[in-house]
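Table S2 (text version). Query chain:
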Amino acid sequence: MIDLINPNVRELMPYKAGRPVEEIQRLYNIEKVIKLASNENPYPVPQYVADAISGELANIHAYPCSDSYYLRERIARYNGVKPGNVVVGSGSVELIRMIAKTFLNPGRGDKVLTSDKTFVMYKIAAVEEGGNRAIVEIPLGADYRYDLDRMVDAVDKQTKIIFIANPNNPTGTLLSKKELQAFIDKIPGDVIIVLDNAYQEYVTAAGDEVAASDYFDGIETAVARKNIIVLRTFSKIYALAGLRVGYAIAHEEVISYLGRVKAPFNVTRLAQVAALASLQDDEFKNKSARLNAVNRERLFQRLSRLGLEVVPSKANFILFFPRTDTNDLNERLLKEGVIIRPLHGFGFPDGIRVTVGTQEENDFFMEKLEKVFKEMNRGLN
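Corresponding structure-token output:
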């Protein structure tokens, strides 16, 4: 069998998602379980979005619009671009794979450049297309942010794609507008720079005017230049993770090539109408961002008071270092009904990422964390 497998697939380490609530309930025979592992919005979608989904159920016997025509039109208006600057995908993951498939030529030795501690799908997409030799990972800086200077120095003739998540997952750290603009100006025009803005709204819609004004969304640059692609998603702030829908904004020529590798009917009818309804107004988005900012700060302070190293975050999750075996801590918390995310696959074997939940969920998590620490005879503070 092994000889039948694509060598690139043999080299892949599969993406490991957070375990579902239902599995933990069954496995440990417990009723209350909260999931703080996958950076989901804890608040349910507005009624008008739920109504749009319900209204589309009668049509699911038919394929969806293959190019998400109406959604692309609405996304374009929302972002001040043309529909030809937009392609819609089944979440950002499909778009990341489309980008790798479109621009990587393994026969030339093309490579992807990113951080060693960032969203693991960048590496997976690169290895799928070109094997382990197709990925170059630059260590994060001491401040848990992308080391842009080292990334510039690492660019060579084989570099074809650079992936940057801003804020970064799993650190939650942010690159400023000035830093990113300077970085882009130093990169050759034949290198594709992908700005993954999955968590953008947690910066720009949270009421922090200073942070919002210093955020680089990249859209104007992406439309004008042929080597910038901006990724956005409805999975996070819009609470549509279960429907999988995201989009890319880029120069029309770039979008036309991405469209060639896009699967037909790739975004479901329910996903399209839900995303379309989500752009009806910004009230839900803005409220979710504000609540996240308040609860994130409270959670940050409570973790810090335990004497833990906690990385300041601008996203809807927090990275912290428990100074104990993270696998053991994870299993103990699972038995208590809390699903968090150990970060071995992200390059932080000693780190834990926890999603910012509702205040009630955060209180439950902290209660169980302190209980587990005491059971492990781990001194607090």
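Notes on Table S2: The first helix runs from residue 7 to 10. The mean pLDDT is 94.
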